[in-house]
User: Which sequence fits this backbone?
DNA sequence: CGCATGTTTCGATAATTGTAGAAATATAAA
DNA sequence: TTTATATTTCTACAATTATCGAAACATGCG
């Protein structure tokens, strides 16, 4: 794993609103949640949520799918699993 | 663990220079490295490194001790271990 | 079509962050 | 005590980020 890639993912997840969004989506399971429901549950303004969602999407932590007018968001675990594994291996034991 | 505490640590580690510094210190082991050596190895300007070191210190990821004129930096693993454990438990399996 | 709902883009603003030169501080050595 | 070395603080500036109202876009319904 590239240092910069790891840093980038950590910085995207390292924002309290984005971390809350991601955790909510993890809890929501494989179907995810509509944007509007995330917005309501976390009490964030629409444009603000949209901004954060796109940053999470940008590093592959979230995917979206549409059903009618409703856009669902689903947490993607693989990128975070890789980073957590990396940190565990490289940063959790002093050499 | 508080959401905000986790987010804060992730954001501090989520910067490529700081991540490099931390990884270097992890590799350096329990004695750590002098600030000057970190600076040289990563080719960073003094004030810039000092800034980043203090941010790492601020979230408990680094500690320093002095020996004569030389200030050593040592990686502190516990906070990261906690966060990695948290992420592993809360964010690596869809409910 | 015209309207309602869900979400995004635009645009502006405030706040935070990263960077590094110059000057200051700390410690030790000559 | 002068000088050298190690590091930080001060300061300023550029860049990025977070926020959200208003307007626009997307989709489906009557």
Assistant:
């Amino acid at each position: 794993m590239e240092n910069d890639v790891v840093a980038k993912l950590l910085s995207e997840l390292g924002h309290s609103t984005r971390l809350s969004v991601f955790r909510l989506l993890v809890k929501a399971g494989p179907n995810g949640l509509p944007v509007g429901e995330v917005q309501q549950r976390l009490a964030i303004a629409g444009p603000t949520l949209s901004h954060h969602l796109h940053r999470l999407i940008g590093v592959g932590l979230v995917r979206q799918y549409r059903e009618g007018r409703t856009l669902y968001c689903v947490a993607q675990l693989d990128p975070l699993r890789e980073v957590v594994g990396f940190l565990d291996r490289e940063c959790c034991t002093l050499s």
